[in-house]
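Appendix B: complex inputs.
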Amino acid sequence: MLVIDSIRKQFGDLVAVDSVSLSIAAGEIFGLLGPNGAGKTTTVNMCVGLLRPDRGSIAIGDTGDPTNKDVRRLVGVAPQSLAIYDEMSGRENVTFFGKMQGLRGSELKERVAWALEFVGLADRQQDKASEYSGGMKRRLNLAIAVVHKPKLLLLDEPTVGVDPQSRNAIFEHILALREMDTTIIYTTHYMEEAQRLCDRVGIMDRGNLLAIDSVDGLIETHGGASRVIATRPDGEAVEMQTDDPLAELQRLQSNGGLQTFHVERANLETVFLNLTGRALRDE
Amino acid sequence: MNEIIALAAKDLRMLLRDKAGFFFAFVFPVVYASFFGMIMSGMGGGGSSGIYVVVVDEDQTEGSAAFVRQLSDLDALNVITTGRDEAQDLVRRGKRAAMLVLPTGFGKARAEIFGNPPEVGLGIDPARAAETGMLQGILMGELFGDLQRVFTDPTAMAGQLDSTIDEVRNAEDIDPLTKTTLLTFLPALKTFMTKMPDLQNDDSNDGGEGTNNAAGFMQPKIEKIDILPQRDGPQSAYEITLAQGAVWGIMGCAAGFGISLVVERTRGTLVRLRMAPISLWQVLAGKGVACFFTTMTVGIGLFVFAAIVFGVRPHSYAMLAIALVCVSFAFVGIMMMLAVMGKTEQAAGGIGWAILVVLAMIGGGMMPLAFMPAWMQDVAVISPIKWSILAMEGAMWRAFSPTEMLTPCLVLIGIGIGCFGMGAKVFKATV
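Resulting structure:
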């Protein structure tokens, strides 16, 4: 669905994206994980044709370059900033952006109704966006992005500033979109979200794509050993790193027994730490 | 095109929902034009115009009453009559600019040619010195006018001479030689005056324009030369303030739409629009169409309001329509320039209004250009406000011909194209 080949983008002296290549299949949820300033949004902006890469190429579907208007019709975007008109109702917002995507007449009405229903705003569609909560605004942002039934959906930090309940609702909407065979690029700096949603994750830092794989694959390759923390019946604390925590626990049990234990498995945070030498949320 | 219309409709909907924006676009120009129109037409005082004078008629004769009536008939004065104490009180409290006392004997003295001149007492409010100076001029004019009327009216003159001859004849304090001289001269003068109607009707003795009575008094005749060939200037003060009011409303629209473009950028909707399958030019065109439509609506609305409420009628409806189109076009370009003046709405709003106010100041948007020094009038050519007002005035009351209308209209179109092009170029480079 999306093929990115060695793209580079530079702003003055700052290289925002350098030699990034990846390929995303139809119906896949691909996570771009990295701290702020890693180059995620610049990559997304090049994917939707807002920016032209200084070098390399991007192709969407069979049509090609996203700077082409017809190609952009295949793409939906929910920007990180809440790109909605507060003075207009939810319905008016979705209708307006539907028109910008070229929808007209009964098709527009049907798609607007579907999008509002999809994100759970049908009952509040006549209310002004300024009266929505933060979570509702995020859902409206998503409704606008999907109103024209895009093949490729780019979600740029879609859960920033959202309460846990709305966050879960957004996750459900994203998973539902995958069921509809929509390809999704999901940028985030929350590793839990990437772990929960994404089929594959690309780790970005300082404009470079450091690794791409499934979450399990990344952990296995770059996560390092798990940590076993246990307590002996006499109160002695035991802590160790191991690639096989189950075997280590069995060994401890047979050798003096265990009163308590827990295993800390490597996650994307540790993957990032191992790849970059710093924590994901250092910035 | 559908996208441009949708963009424009969105902006208009948002403008209607923005109470402050709506006020400055649609209500403020009406208030401005009405308020300054009232001031300039004198309606602000709540009654008829003119200097407020209280007259104390202590003479109470037919002659003094006639003089009071004469003053009351003047547009330049607003006259009431009352007693001396009340008159003094009114002037002291600032309710009247001056009090005029017609003392006993005023009526008789006013009617006489020979003898004591009429005297009046004038009490003034020191804070109204300018009006008092004007009032003194008016009084002198009216009193000299009496004298002139006597001299130019043979019947009145003959009556006056009869009365004077009788007084001389009965006088005991005049020496005989003087009495004899006067009783010879005055009847001879009367005889001369009674022949005046014949002389007056004899065109052969008429020395041409400027001589219109047999007494030989040359009355200055001032011929009024109309500067405006087809229409006698503005029919009311509202016609003057209307163009200025419209310009302020249109400036408000341009500033508002310019800021709205900055707001689109800061809140991210512009990015979303640019990600849609439309070009940046379509986005800007949508904004331009909305701005053009709004400025036209402001202009038309204001002129319709003025026509209904103040009875204002333009010299040419077609010219007015052309002027409004050109003015709106120019301000769409100015809107585009304002949109690139700042990166935040506060910056764009502040800088934009600062520029507009200066342009309005030098362009006659605050004070008519005619009241400004010559160098300021020269500088005004750089201001689109000057050309906007000129185009609208040309259609309203200056009775511009199509050729005369061409200059301001072409300048405005040039401003519109230039500003829009430059603004759009900078805008594209910065988004």
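The longest strand of chain B covers residues 51-57.
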